[in-house]
Design goal:
single chain; about 290 residues; alpha/beta; 8-stranded parallel β-barrel; about 20% strand
C-alpha cells in the first residue's frame, strides 16, 4: 500500500528515516539491511546530508529503495536551495519514480527558547509553493513546458514542543502548508504524551494527519548526545535515568519505545522512527510495539 493510500485510509502508518550513505558506504548495503522490515513500514525517508564537503546521493538511494519495493520518501530542505535548484531536484526525483516528498528548512541545528530559534522545522513555504504550483501544472519556474506534470504526497515538519498554546505564527504556517496540499504533518520528537495530546487537539481544525517522530534511543549516551548537541532537554531526564539504571539497556530501550507508541496510537495517525544508525536493529522494536 502506498503512503498516501494508507493516510487516506486512516491507517496507523509507520515510517522510518535513514541517511544517504557517505564516502565509501554503499547505498545498496543500506537497502539490503532494510529488507528485513520490508512490508512493516509504509515509507522510508532518506535525508539530504553533507559532511566535509561530501554530499550523499539521496535521490539515488530513494531510487534503490523503490526498486526493492519500498515506498521511498525524498527528504529535502528548502533554505539553501533557490527555486531552480529545488525544481531540478524534484523533477529528478519524480523521474526515478519517487512519489513522496518531506520538506524542512534544515535539520536539528538550531536551539533556543525564542520562537524563531525553536521553530527549526519551519519550511520556506513561499519558495516551495511557487515551485510546486509550476511543476504540478507541467511548467518550469521559467514558464517552459516540462515533459509531464510532477506531483508528490507532501509531508512537512512542524514544531510540536510548544507549551500550552501553539503560537499564531505556527498556526498560520500550518494553514499555509495545508492549503499547499500537505498530506501530513511530521512533528518534532515526542516524549511527553500529555504535551503532545494538547498539541494535536489544537491543530485538529486543519484535518491533516499527524505523524509523531520517535527517536530510537539505544543507550543513555545517545540521549545525552542529543541533549548536548541538538537541543538541551529534548530527551527528558527520566528517560536518561531509565536507560542509565537498566541492567539490560536494550530491553529498557525497547520498552520505552513500545510504551510511547502505545500512547501515540490513541492520539495521532502514525510514527516516524529515527533509528540514528540502528536500521539493522529496528525489527525487535516493531515487534514490541505491535507494529505489524
Amino acid at each position: 500500500m502506498k503512503l498516501n493510500e494508507a493516510l487516506k485510509g486512516k491507517k496507523f502508518v509507520v515510517t522510518s528515516e535513514v541517511q544517504a550513505p557517505l564516502f565509501d558506504a554503499r547505498p545498496e548495503d543500506l537497502v539490503e539491511c532494510l529488507k528485513r522490515v520490508r512490508g512493516r513500514v509504509d515509507g522510508v525517508s532518506v535525508t539530504d546530508v553533507e559532511l566535509e564537503g561530501v554530499v550523499g546521493d539521496t535521490i539515488h538511494t530513494c531510487e534503490l529503495l523503490e526498486q526493492s519495493r519500498f515506498n521511498s520518501i525524498y527528504q529535502t530542505t528548502t533554505r539553501d536551495k533557490n527555486r531552480i535548484q529545488l525544481q531540478k531536484d524534484l523533477t529528478q526525483a519524480h523521474q526515478v519514480g519517487i512519489e513522496n516528498l518531506l520538506v524542512f528548512t534544515e535539520d536539528y541545528r538550531i536551539s533556543g527558547d525564542s520562537l524563531q530559534e525553536s521553530m527549526f522545522f519551519h519550511v520556506d513555504s513561499g519558495k516551495l509553493d511557487s515551485v510546486l504550483k509550476h511543476i504540478r501544472e507541467g511548467r518550469s519556474v521559467d514558464g517552459e513546458k516540462l515533459s509531464s506534470p510532477v506531483d508528490f504526497t507532501l509531508g512537512s515538519g512542524v514544531e510540536s514542543l510548544w507549551g500550552k498554546n501553539v503560537p499564531k505564527q505556527g498556526m498560520e504556517e500550518m494553514e499555509t502548508l495545508r492549503a499547499m496540499g500537505a498530506g501530513y504533518f511530521l512533528t518534532t520528537p515526542v516524549f511527553d504524551l500529555e504535551q503532545f495530546h494538547r498539541f494535536t487537539r489544537q491543530i485538529k481544525t486543519f484535518d491533516v494527519p499527524v505523524i509523531a517522530e520517535v527517536l530510537l534511543l539505544r543507550n543513555p549516551a545517545m540521549a545525552r548526545f542529543i541533549n548536548r548537541h541538538f537541543k538541551s532537554g529534548m530527551v527528558p531526564e527520566w528517560v536518561v535515568e531509565k536507560l542509565d539504571k537498566a541492567a539490560d539497556k536494550k530491553q529498557a530501550s525497547i520498552e520505552l519505545f513500545a510504551d510511547l507508541v502505545k500512547g501515540l496510537k490513541e492520539t495521532c495517525q502514525g510514527v516516524h522512527i529515527i533509528t540514528m544508525g540502528g536500521e539493522d536493529q529496528l525489527q525487535p522494536y516493531l515487534d514490541a510495539a505491535g507494529l505489524r
